[in-house]
Design a protein that fits this description.
single chain, 941 residues, mainly beta, 7 domains, 8-stranded mixed sheet, 7-stranded antiparallel sheet, 5 helices, 3% helix, 48% strand, disordered N terminus, disordered C terminus, binds 2-acetamido-2-deoxy-beta-D-glucopyranose
Length: 941
C-alpha cells in the first residue's frame, strides 16, 4: 500500500522588525519548495486554541468542485515556522513538498502570511466515500524560535462532489493529476485520448489485489515501465478509488516531458496503467498536459494563452461545452468578471484570459534588485474547460490553477521638488512606492538621521498613503539648515544644494535599498554688505553693515593708488556681528587730500569690500569731507606759518623738497604729505602790496629747480606745484575787510592768511615818552594848558618797509569822532597853524622802539571848548587817522610827516568825512584817545 511517512520541516528564515505597533511581529519565511512559500506571522496565540473554522474567517475551508481550499489569514499567522500535515483518522502525516506534490496538496502564501492550501479530493489521506463524499483533515502547526510557542489548528472538511467527468485533469501549482473512470470489462470503451484496452493477462502476480495497480508504462515518449512500488518511490502518485484511476506527477520528473502546443510550453505526463480487475487485467492509457507558460505581459494587462486543442489529450473532433474562469481556485460569474474587467475568450487556436494588472484579487510586491525599485504583481487565475469528444461522447474536465507573477516592472521613484519662492525650503516629494515600502532614515552630508530625528529637527517628514495603497514621502528642508550646501556662483546668487540618500526598506523581508537624490535651487538672494560714513572735525567714521553672507568680506583701503587690506592695528575697529565700525583720522596713511583751502582740507578715504577667494567687489565707499585746518597763520609780529600739503593731483611730490621763494627757506618740518614753514614776512623773498585797508604779503611754496641731485629724476617731482602763501593785514578799523583772491588754476587752493596790523594811540606822562597812562587811568585829568603827549604806534610789526604817518588829528567833546564841535590838531600830516601849541616830537630807536618809522609823537596844550565864554564841557577826546605806507615808494605820503608843509589849514569843520582819496598802497588806521578831563583847578593859569 501507499505508505509514506516522510517528515519535512520547512526551512524558515525569520527576521524581526519592530514597527510602530511593537507587539506585532511581521516575519518572512521562505521554503525551498518551489511555489510554496509559507510565511507564518502574526500574534502569538494561546496553544490551546483549536478552531476548526476561525470566528472572523481567518481560517477558512471551502469545497470548490474537485478541490478543497483552506485559507489562513495573515492576522492568524504565528511564529516563524509552519508545518502542515494530513490527518487520516488518528494518524498525522507531515507533508513534505515532495509528498505534497505526490499526494495532491499544494500551498502558497504571499509575503504577509496569507496562505492558501489546495487539496485534491482525490489526494492521499482523503477519506473517500464512494467517490461522492470526501472527508479531509489538515493540521496546521505554527511555532516561533522556541517550540514552546507552538500553535496548532486542525481543520476537517467534508466535501461532496459527484459530477465527475469521465476524465478529470487538474493542473495545480506543483503537480499534474489525471483521474479516469474505470469501465467495467464487459463494456469496453474507447475515449478520446484515452484508450481502454481489455487484455487478458495470465502473468499477473498473485500478490496484486483486485482493482489495484500492477505496473505502469511511462511514455516520455519512450516507454519506461515501473511497478507500482517503484513508481511511488520515484515520486508519482497512483491509486484507484471505487470508480476511478488516479495518477499524479510533479512537474519536471524524469518520466514527464515538455512540449510546445500552439506556441504554449506544456508539460506532459502520459502513462499506461495495468491494473487488475475482478477477472482480468485492464490497461488504461491516461495523460495530463499542463501549461507552463503562455503569458504575455504589458504594463496594464496580463494575457494568458492556453491551447484550445491539446494533442496528447485530444485525438478526435471535440466540442467545448463549458468555459469558466476563476481566481484562487474559485469560479467567477459573469458579473464579477465584468466588475474585475477579466476577459475569457476562445479563438481558433487558444483559450485566452485577460487580467488587468492590479486587480484586487492579486497583490503587488516591491523588489529592489541592484538597489533599483521594481514591483511585481501576482495573481492566481484558474481556467476550467469541459469538452466532449464527438465520437465517444466522453467528457473531459480540464482545470488549471495558474499563479502568475509579472516580470519585475521598474518603477524608479521620482523626487519632485516644489518650492514657494519666498519660502527658502526644499519641499521634497519622493514616490511612488507600494504600501510595503517604508522609509527608515535619510543620509545627509552631515550624517544619517532617522525619520523621527528628521522631524525633531523640523524637517516635517510625512508619509502619505493613497486609496490604492500606494504611498509617497515628503520632507521639508530649510535652506538655512547645515545639511544644505551653499555656494555662490556670482556675488548676488546663492545655489543651495541638498544631496541626500533615502534609506528605504521593503517589508516584511527587510530588504534595504537606498535611493539617492540631489536637489538644487538657485536664488538671487544675496544681500550685499553696505557702507555708510560721516565725518567730524578729525575723523572719518565708516560703518559697514553685514549683508546676508555675514563677514565674508575683507575691507580694503586705497593706499597710494592700490588696494590694501585694512590695517586693524592702525584704526579703531569695532565689530558687533552686524556692523563693523572704523574710525579713520583724516591724516591717516590711507587717506588722500583732494584740495586745500585756507581753513580746511578736503580729504577722502576709499574703501572696498572684497569677497575672497573670488575677488568679487561687493561694495565700495568713497567718502570725502572738509576738515578744518589753518593752512597759513599770520601773526601780528610778522611771523608767518604755512602748511604745504601734498594733494592727490601731485602724487609724486616729496614735500621735503619744497621751499619758499627764497630757496634757502626750507620747511621746518616735513613728512611724506606735509611741509611746515615758519618765516618772517621780511624774509624769504616775501613780496608786499598795499590795498584799501589791507597790507598784503605774498610768498610761494614750490618745488624750485635748484635741486641738482633730483634734476635727473624729473618724474619724481612736480615742477608745477605752486602754493601761494598770503598774509593780509587788515587795518583794525570799524569796518572789517573781507578779501579774497582768485586762486591760480591747478594750484592748490589757498586762501590768504589774514592778520591784524594794530595801531595804538597812547598818552605819555612825560615828554620822555617813557611812562604812559594805562587803560585804568582814564579819564586822565589835566590842567588847562598842561601839555598832552600823544604817541601813535604801529604795534608788533617788524617790517621796516612800513612807515606810519598821521594824516589828521582832532579833538571832540564826545567819544564819537564825528561829533561837533571839533578842533583840528593835525591837518593833512601838518600841525594846525591855528593852534600854536601843537608840536611834533622826533622818535629815535631805543630799547622799546626798534623801527622809529612805526611811531609818531606830538603834543598839544590842554584846552577846552567854549561858547560865549562858557566852558562847555570838561573833557575832550583826541582822534587820529594814521596812514601806513610803503617806504620803498618815497614819492607818496611816505616821504614823511608834513614833509612838504601844506599851510592851507582848514577852519573848524562842521561835519563830514576827513578821508580823501589815497594811493592804493596806503592803509589807514583810525585811532582815538580815551577821555581827557580838564581839572577843576584849571583856572589857576
Ligand atoms: C488511512 O487510515 C486508514 C486506517 O485508519 C488506513 O486503512 C488507510 O490506509 C489510511 N490511508 C492512507 C492513504 O494511508
Ligand atoms: C538607514 O536605512 C537603511 C535602509 O535603507 C539601512 O540599511 C541602514 O542601516 C540605515 N542606516 C542607519 C545608520 O540607520
Ligand atoms: C551694531 O552697531 C551698529 C552701529 O555701529 C548699530 O546700529 C547696531 O544696532 C549694533 N547692533 C548690535 C546688535 O549691537
Ligand atoms: C611771533 O608771534 C608768534 C605767536 O605769538 C610766536 O610764536 C613767534 O615766536 C613770534 N616771533 C617772533 C620773531 O617774535
Ligand atoms: C581792533 O583791535 C582791538 C584790540 O586789539 C580789538 O579789541 C578790536 O576788536 C579790533 N577791531 C576790529 C574791527 O577788528
Amino acid at each position: 500500500m501507499f505508505v509514506s511517512l516522510l517528515s519535512f520541516s520547512y526551512a524558515v528564515y525569520l527576521l524581526h522588525l519592530e514597527i510602530l505597533m511593537s507587539y506585532i511581529f511581521l516575519c518572512y519565511l521562505s521554503v525551498t519548495w518551489i511555489l510554496l512559500a509559507v510565511p507564518v506571522c502574526g500574534l502569538f496565540q494561546s496553544p490551546s486554541s483549536k478552531p476548526s473554522s476561525h470566528p472572523d474567517g481567518g481560517l477558512k475551508s471551502e469545497c470548490l468542485w474537485n478541490i478543497m481550499r483552506l485559507t489562513l489569514d495573515e492576522a492568524l499567522a504565528v511564529g516563524s515556522q509552519l508545518e502542515i500535515a494530513a490527518i487520516n483518522g488518528t494518524d498525522i502525516i507531515p507533508l513534505s513538498p515532495t509528498l505534497a506534490a505526490q499526494c495532491g496538496y499544494s500551498m502558497d502564501s504571499d509575503p504577509w502570511g496569507n496562505t492558501k492550501v489546495f487539496v485534491s479530493l482525490l489526494g492521499c489521506y482523503v477519506d473517500n466515500q464512494a467517490d461522492e463524499t470526501f472527508n479531509l483533515g489538515l493540521r496546521i502547526q505554527m511555532y516561533g524560535d522556541g517550540l514552546s510557542k507552538k500553535v496548532q489548528h486542525d481543520v476537517t472538511e467534508t466535501c461532496s462532489y459527484s459530477r465527475w467527468a469521465s476524465r478529470e485533469i487538474l493542473c495545480d501549482r506543483n503537480y499534474m493529476e489525471v483521474s479516469t473512470l474505470m469501465v467495467t470489462p464487459e463494456v469496453p470503451v474507447t475515449m478520446d485520448g484515452q484508450k481502454v484496452q481489455e487484455t487478458w493477462q495470465d502473468a499477473i502476480p498473485d500478490a496484486v489485489a483486485p482493482n489495484s495497480i500492477w505496473k505502469m508504462t511511462f511514455h516520455t515518449p519512450d516507454s519506461k515501465v515501473m511497478v507500482l512500488k517503484d513508481a511511488h518511490r520515484a515520486g508519482y502518485g497512483a491509486m484507484t478509488t471505487p470508480t476511478r484511476l488516479v495518477l499524479r506527477s510533479p512537474y519536471n520528473m524524469p518520466e514527464t516531458y515538455a512540449e510546445e502546443v500552439a506556441g504554449v510550453p506544456m508539460e506532459v505526463f502520459s502513462v499506461s496503467t495495468y491494473y487488475k480487475q475482478v477477472r482480468r487485467l485492464a490497461i488504461i492509457v491516461s495523460a495530463a498536459a499542463c501549461p507552463t507558460g503562455g503569458l504575455v505581459f504589458t504594463d496594464e494587462v496580463i494575457t494568458w494563452y492556453v491551447p484550445r486543442r491539446i494533442p496528447p489529450l485530444i485525438s478526435s473532433a471535440f466540442k467545448i461545452l463549458e468555459t469558466h474562469m476563476g481566481i484562487n481556485g474559485q469560479r467567477l460569474d459573469k458579473t464579477m468578471m465584468a466588475i474585475r474587467r477579466y476577459k475569457l475568450s476562445i479563438t481558433e487556436s487558444h483559450v485566452v484570459i485577460e487580467l488587468p494588472v492590479g486587480s484586487p484579487d492579486g497583490y503587488y510586491k516591491s523588489h529592489a534588485p541592484d538597489y533599483s525599485y521594481h514591483i511585481t504583481y501576482t495573481v492566481e487565475p484558474m481556467l476550467e474547460l469541459l469538452w466532449r469528444a464527438e465520437d465517444t461522447r466522453a467528457d473531459t474536465r480540464y482545470k488549471v490553477l495558474f499563479p502568475i507573477t509579472t516580470p519585475l516592472m521598474p518603477r524608479p521613484p521620482h523626487v519632485t521638488e516644489s518650492r514657494v519662492p519666498e519660502q527658502k525650503v526644499f519641499n521634497v516629494l519622493l514616490g511612488t512606492f507600494l504600501h510595503d515600502v517604508s522609509l527608515l532614515n535619510i543620509t545627509f552630508t552631515t550624517g544619517v538621521l532617522t525619520v523621527t530625528e528628521c522631524n525633531a529637527r523640523g524637517f516635517d517628514f510625512q508619509e502619505h498613503r493613497f486609496a490604492n495603497s500606494s504611498k509617497t514621502f515628503s520632507l521639508q528642508v530649510p535652506f538655512s539648515d547645515e545639511v544644505v550646501l551653499k555656494h555662490n556662483p556670482n556675488p548676488l546668487t546663492t545655489v543651495y544644494f541638498l544631496p541626500l540618500v533615502f534609506g528605504l526598506l521593503i517589508l516584511p523581508e527587510q530588504i534595504p535599498f537606498p535611493h539617492p537624490a540631489e536637489l538644487e535651487a538657485s536664488l538671487e538672494d544675496v544681500v550685499l554688505p553696505t557702507t555708510t560714513g560721516f565725518c567730524d572735525q578729525d575723523n572719518f567714521y565708516i560703518s559697514v553693515k553685514y549683508g546676508s553672507q555675514g563677514d565674508n568680506f575683507q575691507i580694503m583701503m586705497l593706499h597710494a593708488g592700490s588696494w590694501r587690506e585694512l590695517d586693524t592695528e592702525l584704526y579703531s575697529l569695532t565689530d558687533n556681528n552686524t556692523h563693523v565700525s572704523i574710525v579713520v583720522p583724516y591724516t591717516a596713511p590711507d587717506t588722500v587730500f583732494e584740495t586745500v583751502q585756507s581753513d580746511s582740507i578736503r580729504a577722502r578715504v576709499d574703501l572696498l569690500l572684497l569677497e575672497t577667494p573670488n575677488m568679487w567687489q561687493l561694495n565700495d565707499l568713497s567718502l570725502a569731507c572738509y576738515f578744518p585746518l589753518t593752512m597759513t597763520e599770520c601773526y601780528p609780529n610778522g611771523t608767518v606759518t604755512a602748511l604745504a600739503v601734498k594733494v592727490e593731483s601731485v602724487r609724486n611730490l616729496n614735500p621735503k623738497y619744497l621751499t619758499l621763494s627764497d630757496q634757502s627757506c626750507k620747511p621746518v618740518f616735513s613728512n611724506d604729505r606735509f611741509a611746515f614753514f615758519s618765516f618772517s614776512l621780511n624774509s624769504c623773498g616775501t613780496t608786499r602790496t598795499f590795498f584799501d585797508n589791507v597790507m598784503a604779503y605774498e610768498n610761494e611754496i614750490a618745488m624750485h629747480h635748484s635741486m641738482g641731485k633730483h634734476q635727473s629724476r624729473k618724474g619724481l617731482i612736480n615742477p608745477d606745484y605752486r602754493h601761494t602763501v598770503s598774509c593780509y593785514y587788515l587795518v583794525n578799523d570799524t569796518e572789517t575787510m573781507a578779501f579774497r583772491t582768485r586762486p591760480r588754476n591747478s594750484d592748490p587752493k589757498a586762501d590768504p592768511g589774514v592778520g591784524q596790523l594794530v595801531v595804538q594811540m597812547r598818552l605819555a606822562q612825560e615828554v620822555s615818552y617813557d611812562l604812559f597812562y594805562q587803560t585804568e587811568d582814564y579819564p586822565v585829568v589835566k590842567y588847562l594848558q598842561q601839555p598832552l603827549y600823544f604817541e601813535v604806534e604801529l604795534m608788533w610789526s617788524t617790517d621796516p618797509r612800513i612807515a606810519l604817518v598821521l594824516e589828521n588829528c582832532w579833538a571832540t567833546l564826545h567819544e564819537d569822532r564825528t561829533t561837533l564841535p571839533s578842533w583840528d590838531l593835525i591837518v593833512k600830516r601838518c600841525e594846525n597853524l591855528d593852534d600854536r601849541y601843537i608840536v611834533f616830537h622826533p622818535v629815535v630807536a631805543d630799547a622799546r622802539i626798534h623801527i622809529p618809522a612805526h611811531v609818531k609823537r606830538f603834543s598839544v596844550k590842554m584846552f577846552t571848548f567854549t561858547t560865549d565864554e562858557t566852558v562847555l564841557k570838561e573833557q575832550i577826546f583826541v582822534h587820529c587817522d594814521a596812514d601806513l605806507c610803503d617806504t620803498t615808494k618815497p614819492d607818496g605820503i611816505c616821504s614823511g610827516q608834513c614833509a612838504s608843509p601844506l599851510r592851507d589849514a582848514k577852519p573848524l569843520k562842521p561835519t563830514g568825512s576827513r578821508r580823501g582819496r589815497r594811493a592804493a598802497d596806503i592803509s589807514q588806521h583810525q585811532i582815538s584817545s580815551g577821555p581827557i578831563l580838564l581839572s577843576d583847578s584849571s583856572n589857576f593859569v
